[in-house]
Design goal:
The chain has one domain. It has 15 helices and no strands. Helix 4 packs across helix 10 and helix 10 packs across helix 11.
Length: 290
């Protein structure tokens, strides 16, 4: 197994675990408050990891790195907000399905911005896995494609923003003038999480001031969300330093398989033919990608 692939699979598993823990906070916090803990509580771990890798002296930072990581950090926050907005339309499946166009859009942005080329196998893998994700996303219907609605446009915009973010983060790692792939990814994670904590913290302070206090009071669960989320982010960033961001994110859709397996094994929910077909297509798409 190639190194980037193993790291991606681990990151996808940990992201699924972080999401499970994060959902436990939704009863105590608003949607934005629950989302904020992933940055706030990841911050000390991100700094510890980044400084440990660089021996306390990160260097090689340049203007291109700062711009790339800033674009990636802001785009990820916007993407999350758009995805949450698509859910408020009452059509969770449509918003989720169209947000998963991220990998396909990342292939386009990666080619235009970073010169990351893709071959026919990558294109085919992204397409096949995307169909599988759509089947796994819930009650998504063909007529949803034929009748554009608010959930569709918000989901698509979310996918665009997620694609911009991953290309931005990969660009940041590649723009550094020094460091191994681990050091580059570690520094990118550290700076990105710092920016996201400050930006989203400022937003909550202005619009939902009580949420910061509640986030701090929820430290027992939130600390695990931050720690696991930081390790997952380090995995994503490291994989994207080694490999085309579009390929990494397409393989990362295996996270949805982990979600389905969690619902079957832990919640004892039944699998339907739709989910089985979706899982087969996701696996087939990932096989084409690798």
């Amino acid at each position: 197994m190639e190194l980037w692939l193993g790291i991606t699979l681990l990151a996808a598993f940990l992201q699924n675990l972080r999401s499970v823990l994060q959902k436990r906070l939704t009863g105590e916090l608003s949607v934005n408050g629950a989302a904020y803990v992933r940055f706030l509580y990841a911050l000390p771990f991100a700094w510890a990891y980044g400084m440990w890798l660089w021996g306390g002296d990160p260097h090689g930072v340049n203007t291109s790195f700062v711009l790339y990581v800033l674009v990636g950090a802001v785009a990820q926050i916007i993407a999350t907000a758009l995805l949450l907005a698509s859910f408020t339309t009452g059509n969770f499946a449509v918003g989720t399905a169209f947000s998963k166009s991220e990998a396909a859009q990342a292939a386009i942005f990666g080619l235009l911005v970073l010169g990351d080329g893709v071959n026919v196998w990558v294109v085919g893998g992204i397409g096949v896995s995307l169909i599988g994700v759509v089947l796994l996303s819930g009650q998504f219907r063909l007529q949803d494609l034929l009748r554009p609605n608010r959930a569709m446009w918000l989901g698509l915009a979310s996918g665009t923003s997620f694609a911009v973010s991953v290309v931005g983060f990969r660009g940041a790692s590649l723009a550094l003038d020094a460091g191994t792939y681990l050091e580059r990814a570690g520094l990118t994670v550290m700076v990105a999480v710092t920016l996201q904590t400050l930006i989203m913290g400022a937003y909550l302070w202005a619009r939902e001031p009580g949420q910061i206090r509640r986030a701090l009071a929820s430290w027992r669960v939130a600390l695990w969300v931050g720690a696991i989320g930081m390790v997952a982010s380090a995995g994503w960033f490291t994989a994207m330093t080694l490999k085309n961001a579009a390929v990494v994110r397409a393989v990362g859709q295996v996270e949805l398989l982990f979600t389905v397996m969690t619902s079957v094994w832990i919640l004892r929910e039944r699998l339907h033919m739709r989910e089985v077909a979706g899982m087969i297509l996701v696996v087939a798409g990932i096989w084409l990608l690798i």
